[in-house]
């Protein structure tokens, strides 16, 4: 894009995160010639968040490497950036947003991409300076400064972010205890077999677990000195990491009267209840055809897919076929790749030997693969992605038989 | 630095000057070359940065590691000198490289 864009139509994107960042580039790729403005309250151009709990936190990659696009990109592509600015209100009828400082900006199409924020816990002591959440680079910088050899770290929450932080904290030499109120790890997002496998891997690395356990309070005058558990135990600590999930940042949409229900309710084209306002990324709840119900996903691939969808709609292009949701997580030398969502009605079969640390759990419902969780097994993930999308009939026994050729099964 | 040509499946051509030490994927996304989604940002997880290397350049772009090989093979997309562009690191020896973009990513 070298010609200066025309002033209209004006696409205004609120939230310079993964979804917003992907959208502005995609619009230009599709030849959008109007004006584009990307507003974000963080001081950074859009960046990759996954490394914040993994390679970046471990010090294996630099902050520059996190950027989605080089700094020169936005000028070259004629994308107006307003970083470090916060939108305070949307006025849908006037097609206008209002910033914190009272100034306003008009739009023709508005795309909300404000993401999610780390959930807080309503317990005494969560406000202490050494009780940290992890959602953005500023959080990650605080965490990296606090994570040191021999520090006693209590992680509240045994979900992906909690477990990735546990793995990184161990790699940095900290002592780690993970407290989870459910009876097992990853209760909502992974099968029991995967959760059990990951727990034993973490235990072998020296992580302690307290499952089925709530938190009564975080003790300490100004800083946390111990976490008091629901069973009365006190865990002394130098640092507490809160990894108890995220909530959609949907207040702007709610206040503007858009339909919301755990995120902004959108249709398959990511359009909200107002025809000129779209919502994408972690904040949007959209219908996913293969599941036949609206789902709010928190994943990079989900953000990318929705960005491509809205770009196609705004450019009057045929959108590509809906994708099967997928996700990944890295812990120690384990790469977990998941395609599809866990379905408790499905039959699960293990392919390969967990003791080899390379295996997969296939979830099959009515002869169709609905989900695959692969540990250090890219073939199972790729074949699963293909099978989940094609719906090709399979039998649990052929999937469980490691000598049956996966390529043939998926072909 | 290397000047690299990306040819879309519809024939549209893009050239980009890519710095040494960056991956072909980073170079392409940094220049907004269409058709490279690179969802995972180079973690060799997604398979959405697939390109086909021009036959004349296959030797100079190196070979697939086992992980990359498996990803491409099991997606049924290992033909036509396919590579994951996040796994090709650019240097001056790749000046003039030509790659073709698939119609759709994995
Ligand atoms: C530590 C961590 C690890 C992760 N690991 C993985 C992983 O391995 N794999 C995976 O698939 N996903 C992972 N995710 C999830 C993934 O990063 C998110 O799904 C993705 O970033 C969602 O993109 P988004 O644009 O919706 O939200 P975000 O990327 O969060 O961006 C939203 C942006 O909007 C800004 N904003 C909010 N309100 C306003 C306002 N009123 N005005 C202006 N700006 C505003 C926010 O500050 C933020 O910058 C991880 C997330 C975290 C935090």
How would you describe this structure to a colleague?
The complex is a heterodimer of chains A (411) and B (106). Chain A has 411 residues and is of the alpha/beta class. Chain A has eleven helices and 26 strands. Chain A has three domains: 10-117 and 247-314, FAD/NAD(P)-binding domain, CATH 3.50.50.60; 120-244, FAD/NAD(P)-binding domain, CATH 3.50.50; 333-410, FAD/NAD-linked reductase, C-terminal dimerisation domain (Enolase-like, domain 1), CATH 3.30.390. Chain A is 24% helix and 28% strand. The longest helix of chain A is centred in the last third of the chain and has 15 residues, at 300-314. The two termini of chain A are 40 Å apart. With 106 residues, chain B is an alpha+beta fold. Classes of the chains: A alpha/beta (411), B alpha+beta (106). The interface between A and B is medium-sized, with 36 and 21 residues. The structure holds flavin-adenine dinucleotide.
Topology summary:
The complex is a heterodimer of chains A (411) and B (106).
Chain A: E1 10-14, H1 18-29, E2 35-40, H2 55-58, H3 72-76, E3 79-83, E4 87-91, E5 96-99, E6 104-106, E7 109-112, E8 116-118, E9 131-133, H4 137-146, E10 152-156, H5 160-171, E11 175-179, H6 192-204, E12 208-210, E13 215-219, E14 226-229, E15 234-236, E16 239-242, E17 246-248, H7 251-255, E18 264-265, E19 277-279, E20 284-288, E21 293-295, H8 300-314, E22 326-331, E23 334-340, E24 347-351, E25 359-365, E26 368-375, H9 378-390, H10 396-400, H11 406-410
Parallel strand pairs in A: 1-2, 1-7, 2-3, 7-19, 9-16, 10-11, 10-16, 11-12, 18-20
Antiparallel strand pairs in A: 4-5, 5-6, 8-17, 13-14, 14-15, 20-21, 22-23, 23-26, 24-25, 25-26
Chain B: E1 2-7, E2 13-18, H1 24-30, E3 50-53, H2 66-74, E4 82-84, E5 98-100
Parallel strand pairs in B: 1-5
Antiparallel strand pairs in B: 1-2, 3-4, 3-5
The complex binds flavin-adenine dinucleotide.
């Amino acid at each position: 894009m070298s010609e200066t864009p025309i002033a209209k139509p004006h696409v205004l994107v609120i939230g310079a995160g993964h979804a917003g960042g992907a959208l502005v580039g995609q619009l230009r790729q599709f030849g959008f010639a109007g004006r584009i403005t990307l507003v974000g309250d963080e001081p950074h151009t859009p960046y990759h968040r996954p490394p914040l709990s993994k390679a970046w936190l471990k010090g294996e990659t630099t902050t520059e490497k996190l950027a989605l696009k080089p700094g020169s990109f936005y000028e070259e592509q004629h994308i107006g950036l307003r970083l470090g600015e916060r939108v305070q209100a949307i006025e849908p009828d006037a097609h206008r947003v209002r910033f914190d400082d009272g100034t306003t900006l008009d739009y023709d199409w508005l795309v909300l991409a404000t993401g999610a924020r780390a959930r807080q816990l309503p317990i005494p002591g969560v406000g202490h300076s050494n009780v940290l959440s992890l959602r953005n680079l500023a959080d990650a910088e605080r965490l990296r400064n606090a994570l040191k050899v021999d520090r006693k770290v209590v992680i509240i929450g045994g979900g992906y972010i909690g477990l990735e932080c546990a793995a990184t904290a161990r790699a940095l030499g900290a002592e780690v205890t993970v407290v989870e109120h459910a009876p097992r790890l990853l209760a909502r997002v992974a099968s029991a077999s995967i959760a059990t496998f990951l727990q034993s891997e973490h235990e072998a690395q020296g992580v302690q677990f307290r499952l089925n356990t709530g938190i009564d309070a975080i003790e300490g005058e100004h800083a946390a000195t111990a976490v008091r558990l629901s069973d009365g135990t006190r865990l002394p600590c130098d640092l507490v990491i809160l990894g108890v999930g995220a909530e959609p940042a949907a207040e702007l949409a709610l206040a503007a009267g858009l339909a919301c229900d755990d995120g902004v309710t959108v249709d398959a084209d990511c359009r909200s209840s107002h025809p000129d306002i779209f919502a994408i990324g972690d904040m949007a709840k959209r219908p996913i055809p293969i599941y036949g119900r609206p789902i709010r996903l928190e994943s990079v691939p989900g953000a990318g897919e929705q960005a491509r969808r809205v770009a196609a709609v705004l450019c009057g292009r045929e959108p590509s076929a809906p994708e099967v949701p997928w996700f990944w997580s890295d812990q120690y030398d384990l790469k977990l790749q998941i395609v599809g969502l866990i379905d408790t009605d499905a039959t699960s079969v293990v392919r390969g030997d967990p003791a080899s640390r390379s295996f997969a759990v296939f979830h099959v419902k009515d002869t169709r693969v609905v989900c695959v969780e692969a540990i250090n097994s890219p073939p199972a993930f790729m074949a699963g992605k293909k099978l989940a999308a094609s719906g090709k009939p399979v039998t649990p026994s052929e999937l469980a038989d490691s000598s049956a050729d996966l390529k043939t099964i998926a072909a | 630095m290397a000047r690299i040509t990306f040819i879309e499946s519809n024939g549209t051509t893009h050239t980009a000057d890519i710095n040494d030490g960056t991956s072909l994927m980073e170079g392409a996304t940094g220049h907004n070359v269409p058709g490279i989604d690179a969802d995972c940002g180079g973690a060799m997880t997604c398979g959405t940065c697939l390109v086909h290397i021009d036959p004349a350049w296959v030797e100079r772009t190196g070979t697939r590691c086992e992980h990359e090989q498996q990803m491409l093979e099991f997606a049924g997309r290992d033909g036509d000198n396919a590579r994951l562009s996040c796994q090709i690191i650019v240097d001056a020896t790749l000046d003039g490289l030509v790659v073709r973009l698939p119609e759709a990513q994995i």
